[in-house]
Design a protein that fits this description.
With 225 residues, the protein is an alpha/beta fold. 36% of the residues lie in helices and 23% in strands. The chain is built from seven helices and twelve strands. The strands form three sheets. A five-stranded parallel sheet has the order 2-1-3-4-5, with helices on both faces. Strands 6-7-8-9 form a four-stranded antiparallel sheet, covered by helices on one side. The termini are far apart.
């Protein structure tokens, strides 16, 4: 079973991330919590969530020793290490950095994508006048039964938004659906949102069907009869 090592000295932050990881779909990985890196790494380590204070040269030597055995871990770095250490990290490892204050949803989305967790759950989901059927990649108009065919990414985007209890940031959506980190400049999300609006509401009668407010995306709640 692959291991994700959660190496954070701040106990409150470590507990918050660990709790969310347990709730998230992480493809059966095992979360190992610690304030500092262990003296030895197990043969199953795959990735690390490493806080800035723990990203020192001693930690790098330990990780490098693991790499010599054929392992090259993924590092999710919280905060910014100093320039020298950051350079060594970027040269030797696959690193993604997350600025503080931390957007936990973005971090979890990237972790899930890295471990290739399934991003569609299959169960029907109601929003606005529609019933989303992810397994069939379609949205059904509840009143008429008319079917609108969706692409895989359109389905994943609608389901992710529909199952989220709160509006979702652009960074989190890009991380969860496309696997992009926050440093990539892309119009992929905006293009998909534009096409989805045209597909679901070609006459523009439902401007809040897929809403964007203060940089966060959300779906219109299901209508009640």
């Amino acid at each position: 079973m692959p291991e994700l090592h959660l190496i954070i000295a701040d106990q409150a932050l470590r507990a918050a991330i660990a709790e969310q990881l347990k709730l998230a779909d992480t493809a059966g990985m095992r979360v190992v919590e610690a304030a500092v890196l262990p003296a030895r790494l197990s043969a199953e380590f795959a990735a690390f969530i490493l806080d800035e204070p723990q990203a020192d040269r001693i930690a790098l030597k330990l990780l490098a020793a693991g790499c010599e055995n054929g392992k090259k871990p993924k590092i999710f770095l919280l905060g910014e290490a100093d320039a020298g250490i950051a350079g060594e990290l970027d040269e030797s490892f696959a690193v993604e950095s997350f600025a503080k204050p931390l957007r936990l949803g973005h971090l979890l989305a990237r972790v899930q994508f890295y471990f290739q967790a399934p991003r569609t759950q299959g169960g029907p989901l109601a929003f606005g006048p529609f019933r989303l059927e992810p397994a069939l990649r379609q949205a059904v108009i509840a009143e008429s039964g008319a079917v609108i065919r969706l692409t895989e990414k359109e389905t994943q985007l609608l389901e992710y938004l529909g199952r989220s209890p709160h509006p979702v940031s652009r960074e989190e959506l890009l991380a969860a659906i496309w696997g992009y980190d926050a440093h990539i400049d892309t119009h992929t999300l905006e293009t998909h949102v534009y096409r989805l609006r045209r597909k679901l509401d070609p006459e523009g009668k439902e401007p809040d069907m897929l809403a964007v407010r203060q940089g966060a995306y959300s779906l219109m709640p299901a209508r009640t009869r």
